[in-house]
Amino acid sequence: MKRTGIKGRSRRVRRLLLLSLSIAFIGFRVWFSSTNAATFLKGYMLFKTSQADAEATPKLVVSEKEEQQQATESAEPVKKEALYLEQPEQGENIGKLIILKLEATLPIIHGTDEEELEKGFGHFAESVLPGMQDNSVLSRHRNTVFHRLSEVGKGDLLIVETVAGKFTYKVRQVRIVDEDDRTVIVPRPKATLTVSTCYPFDFVGYALERYILIADLISSE
């Protein structure tokens, strides 16, 4: 009898405790929904949901910078000015390069085979002709005047004279690169003259490096 009474009181205590917790929970919900905390939590959940959706969905909104980049990429290539009526033949003399700092003048021959390089500066046939927009590349063996090419530096002038006119370039950069470095012949956004020769100048045998002058066009006549 005594044991039955204890069990009954225990059940009543549990029911009372559960009832109290339920009333407290309902009261908390009523209070919470009437405060800014509920608004904040709801907004936060919506933000996280929309963020997850955005990550799972391809971007449809393009920034102004991306639009300009896409327009540039889709536009037709800019046509280079018609300074020359026709492309020169391999081995043809197309002009001369004047290095004012060294008081030297050497012919420019179209092509970079051994025969052209023996005559003067070889013009890399896949690059534009001097004076045109983009990168015009000239190469030369490290002999005669090129033993003094290290005297030419940033700010010095290089003048190219061809049938299209007289073009003055100002050296912007001096580089020493590996012989297989193709960055010296990459296209440029403006008229550029790149002059290349073997390096070191006093090296005996086949040199594995190249001495590079990069110059920007500053005037045309």
Keywords:
2 domains; Sortase, Chain: A; 4 helices; eight-stranded mixed barrel; 221 residues; alpha+beta
**Poorly predicted ranges (pLDDT <50, ≥5 residues)?**
36-80
Give the strand line-up of the largest sheet. 1-2-3-4-7-8-6-5
- Write down the overall geometry: rod-shaped
Distance between the first and last residues' Cα: 122 Å
The structural domain count equals: 2
What name goes with the CATH superfamily of the largest domain?
Answer: Sortase
Would you tell me the structural class of the helices and strands?
A: alpha+beta
CATH topology of the largest domain: Sortase, Chain: A
State the total count of DSSP E strands. 8
The Rg value, from CA coordinates, equals: 38 Å
- Mind summarizing the main beta sheet? 8 strands, mixed, barrel
Known CATH architecture of the largest domain:
Beta Barrel
Determine the fraction of residues in helical runs and give it as a percent range.
25-40%
In CATH, what is the class of the largest domain? Mainly Beta
Please indicate the percent range of residues in DSSP E strands (runs of 2 or more).
Answer: 25-35%
H/E element string?
Answer: HHHEEHEEEEEE
- The helix tally amounts to 4
The overall pLDDT average reads 75
